Amino acid sequence: MLALPMSHRQEALSRAYVRVIAAQAGVTCGDVAQDYGLDMYLRGIEEVNGEYRDTGPQIDLQLKSTTRARVRADEVAYDLEVPAYNLLRLETVFRPCFLVLLVLPENEAFWLGQSVDQLILRRCAYGLSLRGAAPTTNQETIRVRFPQVNIFSIDLVHHWMDEARQGNET
Length: 170
What we know:
Elements: H1 6-25, E1 27-31, E2 40-44, E3 46-48, E4 51-53, E5 58-66, E6 70-71, E7 75-81, H2 82-88, E8 97-103, E9 112-114, E10 119-121, E11 124-128, E12 141-147, H3 154-165
Parallel strand pairs: 5-8
Antiparallel strand pairs: 1-2, 2-5, 3-4, 6-7, 7-12, 8-11, 9-10
């Protein structure tokens, strides 16, 4: 019998997804202690004279997980809550902030697969910057569109970290 609500299981899976990608990307990953709209951060580790230091760039992440995104050949559409949208579109933030959306199959039985050889989390997560996006008059949600190529991957994390190091956000 499952006791944890489905939304909490989805959140835990999205955090696990980010941690796995961060580990392979060679960056540290942490949870934000108080929830003011951001859930996790990634920080770059730099090697200086043979010593590793936690002095690289930092990016912040807001995580979402859904079984109801509209997945098309070229994009993934998701209805984001307006307060989250307004936070992520701010241009005055000190660190780059990104939205990471984990898309799971509708049937929870297909979320995970496991054997002695592999652990599979089905579907994938997508990443997006909303910095500078247009204001909305919507009251509850706004549809955001992730290009299908924006899979939250090692390459995307490296790209975001390089941009943050240079003072840019894409």
